[in-house]
Specification:
- With about 210 residues, the chain is α/β, with parallel strands linked by helices.
- It contains 6 helices and 9 strands.
- The protein is globular and about 40 Å long.
């Protein structure tokens, strides 16, 4: 039997529905401040004007904190226009300082070698098919400049096997590094226990890697 692969239009409809039904504090991955992401981003040494993309940023508050710290070349990408609309509304006039992209990370055109930092919290672990992961990796390597950094947060070895009605893949540092291949050098990792808005705990793995 042919394995079913969720098409991009299906992914978009799914995430549009998730964000339309839930406020910022209502999604399971909500965190007031992404402290681990911010620390790892600081560890990259990226300049304040370095190009940074938050993949699947939705209405995450990471962009707020980066603007507050003085970063000035920010892109937020998400499939769900509703999520980006909510983020722009929250930021008000400051939203004009951010580049907002609605699209699928697996297919949206990226400028070659532009990004100094590629940040993804909770997108990659939804890619349960090998062809999706291969497309993601091609996109990331195309977008990252040589020496640029990727910061990925996925469910850890004891994280959930499903989230938001979708299957997920769980990783430890070794398996995530192996999945991403030899064009990225492993730099750092940490396990974090994330408490969801309804009080449950989810294990996340954060990894920082550098483009050769």
């Amino acid at each position: 039997m042919r394995e079913y692969v969720m098409l991009p239009k299906d992914r978009k409809a799914h995430w549009d529905n998730v964000y339309e039904r839930n406020a910022l504090h209502g999604v399971s991955w909500y965190r007031e401040h992404l402290d681990t992401s911010l620390r790892m981003l600081g560890d990259t040494g990226a300049a304040l004007d370095a190009a940074i993309v938050d993949v699947g940023g939705g209405h995450s508050t990471l962009v707020d904190d980066l603007l507050q710290r003085g970063y000035s070349n920010l892109t937020v990408l998400d499939l769900a226009e509703a999520a980006l609309t909510a983020a722009r509304s929250r930021l008000g006039a400051s939203s004009a300082r951010v580049r907002w992209l609605t699209g699928d990370v697996l297919s949206i055109p990226f400028e070659k070698g532009r990004m100094a930092v590629w940040h993804d919290r909770a997108v990659f672990h939804f890619l349960t098919h090998a062809e999706e992961r291969a497309a993601y990796l091609r996109q990331m390597l195309h977008a990252l400049k040589p020496g640029g950094h990727a910061i990925l947060a996925t469910f850890g070895p004891e994280g959930p096997m499903r989230c938001s009605g979708l299957d997920t893949r769980r990783y430890d540092a070794a398996s995530l590094s192996a999945t991403l291949g030899t064009d990225l050098v492993f730099c750092d990792s940490v396990i974090e226990m994330h408490k969801t808005p309804n009080g449950k705990e989810q294990q996340f793995l954060y990894c920082r890697l550098q483009r050769r």
